[in-house]
Amino acid sequence: MNFNRINRSTHKWASIIIAIPFLIILITGVLLLLKKEVEYIQPASTKGSVKNQPRISFEQVLIIAKSIPEAGINSWQEIDRLDVRPGKGIIKVRAKSEWEIQIDATNGEVLKTAYRRSDFIEQLHDFTYWQDNANLWFTLPLSIALLLISITGIILFFLPYYKRYKNRLRIKSYS
Question: What stretches of 34-133 show up as alpha helix (H) in DSSP?
C-alpha cells in the first residue's frame, strides 16, 4: 500500500465517522454564539428599580419563585441556581425545569418569566446531555479525529502541487 492510498482512506473514513457529531457541535455552537441576541434561546436580562442594593432575602426569593406555576418550584431542591446581579438590580432564579424568573432585587417584583433553552443546547454541544463525562470519552476522540482529517486534508490538497513541483525540477534537470 502506498502513502497516498492510506492517506485518502484515513481521510474518508474519519470524515464519515465524525460527520454527524461534528454537525451537532457546529449547529449548537452557532446557536450558543447567538444566545444573547435571540430571546428564544436565552431570555434577555431586564433591569431592576435600584442598582447595587439588593434588599430582598433569599427566603423572599423562594416565595416569589413558588408563585410562578410554570417553573414548578416548591422548594430549594427545584432551583438549579440563583444569579444575583447587583449592577442590574435583579436576581435570576433558574429552575431545574429550565424556566428562568427574573426578580427585582429591591422590591421583589417579577420582571420576566421565560423558558431558557441555552442550557439544553450547551448540553447537546458538549454531549453531556447523554452522559456527564461524554465530553471526555466522546468529544476528545472526536477532536482527535477532526485533527486527523484536517492534517490528511491538507496533505491531500498540497500533494498534487508538490508532485508537480518535483516533476518540474526533474524535467529541468534533464534539459
Answer: 58-66, 118-125
Total Cβ atoms within 10 A of residue 53: 11
Residue with the three cell numbers 434588599 = 55
In the three-class reduction of DSSP (H, G, I as helix; E, B as strand; rest coil), residue 95 is classed as: strand
Contact criterion met (CB below 8 Å) for 14 and 145: yes
In angstroms, the CA 96 to CA 81 distance is: 8
The residue type of 166 is K
For residue 99, which of 125, 79, 121 has the smallest C-alpha distance? 79
Report if pTM > 0.85: no
Name the E strands within the chain: 79-85, 90-95, 99-104, 110-115
**In terms of Cα–Cα distance, which of 38, 24, 37 is closest to 127?**
24
Q: Which domains does the chain have, with CATH numbers?
A: 1-38+125-175 (no CATH), 43-116 (3.10.450)
pLDDT along the chain (175 residues), means of 10: 80 83 91 92 87 87 94 94 92 94 93 93 86 79 86 89 88 77
